[in-house]
Structures are given as structure tokens and as C-alpha cells.
């Protein structure tokens, strides 16, 4: 099982791949709405699906589907990280 | 010949509270349900008060006891440790991108603080058109509120008073396929329905023939489905009656709409172009039918008119994540819906709107904007070609 550091590191890689924002500019307090433009629930649900696809592509398949309802509530990347951690059980 | 109008208007945006927001969660976990009645028992008052006052308890006190068990304390500590490690990695990444040290201002900009919005359980917007019923945008995300405006035309010695907007009772019926399949067809994940009232009233003192008197009664239904090409597909269906305050005119219609989301293609979410610049697209396919059973005093319409339009709507947004342009937003929308029936009537609908907005506060609760509109407006189809300046105050 990957460590929480590995998962967070991969999460940042995937966020960078999805948003095209350089990894060095991605932080825990990034606003999903203000920074990434995920202003509504569907965009955050789509973000969850894109993350699942990206993790799988990089050989770190998320063991279970990310919680779509919790993703919809997420305001910051920190919240997304917690959801991904929960899915990995770390 | 197009007209230039300088309009100062006060726009009001009232938005909804998410059904899953933290205060609701705290109340839900501190509640009991008996005989179909949900209530907070007296013995939980103290625990609820502690949960409301302490974010750590609200997050980890799952059973509303007012204190953390050893296991919950362990989870809370782990959460803090995860944050600490995450911040450390962020700082290292920031430094590796920019050198061995991080300018304090850069750290302050990148490590943002929480911003709160004041939300209400109903919406007042510029028109009955929202991207999705699944979760509506927050106040700071949408500068398109209902507006009441007064225009003084010194050259033409004229006064114009206008009220434009919509009141939407969203989430009247919101069904999750995990809870019940009754209103959710197989293969779809969620279904929602919302009724609403749309209005556009304008009184022109010098020329009453230019008055606008419009009322619309509408409903929207929405189905959500995860798909193989696009992450999410939304199918919307809507019906409406467009009339006026005296119910002289009667125009019936409805539409079908498809909207895809795939944020890693920039559809429904942003992609970084360069530096702080972000760009997102909102494409839709749209088909609409309308029949005029009584044209009343609506100009350009005849009783018996009908049309079927189908075409595309494309929206684009640009914003800046940091730097001097952080408070600036740019948006554009173009729609072209050719009429596919009723030869001899030019009922094609074409509309372009470009908006430049500037948030006066970091929370976005006050903003100024300049909007250019050209074509037939969505909703009542009024032909416009104008520029509007607007001061919007949003709560």
C-alpha cells in the first residue's frame, strides 16, 4: 500500500496534468473554484473521475471510487486530498 | 445603428446553501428521528453547541458526544500531521520552482486562507438559466444576479426603470439513484427538477412603445450520467409559458439540452495557458420548440407562429490565479440556433455576450463589470445591441 506521502505526491502530479498548472504552484489551499475553475458540482465530480483515470494511468489505481458527493462539497485541494486518502485507506 | 447605454444598476445574487454544508452536517449528526419527526434532544444541546463552536469536534466527533474518543483524537492528530507534511511538500515544491528561498509575498499568495460566503436557500439570478441543478454556483462565482436599474438619458430627456431576473425554487425534487430509483431511469445517477419565475420589466417614460413586459413560468428537469467519452453528461428538459403581467400573450415552449463535462479537456473546468492565466469552456447542444397561441402585444410575433431551433451554445471563461490581474474575469458566450421549420419566417436565434468583470473585494462580493450584448437574448428573445456597465453587490 502506498504511503500518504506517495499518494499526495501523485495527487499533485495528477492535478498538474489535469489543470496544466506547474506542480510547484499547486498547494493544499488551492481553491477548486477560484484557482481551477471548478465552480459547480458537476465539474468537481468530473475532477474525481479525471483523478481516478490519471492515478490508474500512472500505475497507482485508486482502490475504490472517489466519493462523488464529498468531492462536490470540497472547496480546497486539501479536501480532495482527504477524499483520496480515504479511498486509499491511508 | 446601435445604441450605447450607460446603465448603473444594483445587482443582487442570493445563492443556496449546499445540502451537505458543515452546519447542516453537525445538526444532522446531533439529531434523532422518531415517528417521522427529526429533532435535537435536550441532552445533546451541549454537545451540539461544542460542535458548532469547535471545527475539530465538528469534523471528528461522529456521534455528537461533545468530546473526542481516543480513536477520534488519533484521526484528528493524523489529519493535522497530514496537513503538516502536505504544507512541507508544498513549500519544497514552491522553492524548487523558484529557487532556494520563497518570497514571503509568493508564499502568502499561494497558501491561501479560507474565504466564507453568505448563502441563502433560494436563488435570484439574471435569467432562468443555470449550468446545473446538481450544485449551483456560489455568490462569488457568478456575477449574473437579478438587477433593478435606473437609467437617465440626458440627451433624450428620458428615464428608464427596469427589473430583470429570475427566482428559482431549486432542489424541489432531487433524487439520488442510491436512495430511490423511482425518478431515476436505469443508467443515470441523479435526477432533479426545479420550477421558477423569470421576469423582465422595463418602463420607458419618453417612449412607452419601448416598454418591456415579460413574465415566464418555467421548470427544468435534469438527468446525470457518467459516460465513456465525457466524464459526465447532463440531459436537461424544460417547459415554459411566456406571458406578460396582464396575461395577454401566451407562448408555450420547451427545450432539450445536453452538456458534457471533462475537466482534463478544459470542458467545465480550467486549463492553465501560461503564468496565472486559466481558460475553460462550456459547450452545449440545445434544441427548442415554441408555439404562439396568443401573440398579444408582443412585437414581431403572430398568433400561430411556431418554430423548432437546434444548435450549439459555447461559453468561455478566463481568469488569473495570482498577480495584478487576480480580480479580473473575462467571459464570453455565443449561441447560434437556426430555425429548422416554418419557411418564410426568419426565426434564427443568434446571440453574443462578452463580459469583463473586476472584483472590488477578494471575496468577490462587490464587483464592477462591462457587458456587451448583441443578438436575441436567451429567455424572452429581445433583440439587443448594447453595452452595460454594472456595479454588482453579491451576498
Structural features, described:
Chain A has 90 residues and is mainly α. Chain A has one domain: Non-ribosomal Peptide Synthetase Peptidyl Carrier Protein, Chain A, CATH 1.10.1200. Helices cover 57% and strands 0% of the residues of chain A. Chain A has 4 helices and no strands. In chain A, helix 1 crosses helix 2. Chain A is globular, with a radius of gyration of 12 Å. Chain A starts with a helix and ends with a helix. Chain B has 2 domains: 285 residues, Porin (Beta Barrel); 89 residues, no CATH class. Chain B has a 13-stranded mixed β-barrel. In chain B, strands 2-3 form a two-stranded antiparallel sheet. The longest helix of chain B has 29 residues. Chain B is globular, with a radius of gyration of 25 Å. The N terminus of chain B is likely disordered. At the A-B interface, helix 1, helix 2, helix 3 and helix 4 of A face helix 4 and strand 12 of B.
Could you write a compact summary of the structure shown?
The complex is a heterodimer of chains A (90) and B (395). Chain A has 90 residues and is an all-alpha fold.
What's the helix and strand layout?
The complex is a heterodimer of chains A (90) and B (395).
Chain A: H1 4-19, H2 41-57, H3 68-73, H4 77-88
Chain B: E1 8-13, H1 22-29, E2 32-34, E3 37-39, H2 45-53, H3 55-60, H4 70-98, H5 104-110, E4 123-125, E5 146-153, E6 158-168, E7 173-176, E8 190-204, E9 212-226, E10 232-243, E11 250-261, E12 271-274, E13 277-294, E14 306-320, E15 328-337, E16 349-359, E17 366-376, E18 383-394
Parallel strand pairs in B: 1-18
Antiparallel strand pairs in B: 1-5, 2-3, 4-6, 5-6, 6-8, 7-8, 8-9, 9-10, 10-11, 11-13, 12-13, 13-14, 14-15, 15-16, 16-17, 17-18
List keywords for this structure.
heterodimer, A: 90 residues, mainly alpha, Non-ribosomal Peptide Synthetase Peptidyl Carrier Protein, Chain A, 0% strand, globular, B: 395 residues, Porin, 13-stranded mixed beta barrel, two-stranded antiparallel ribbon
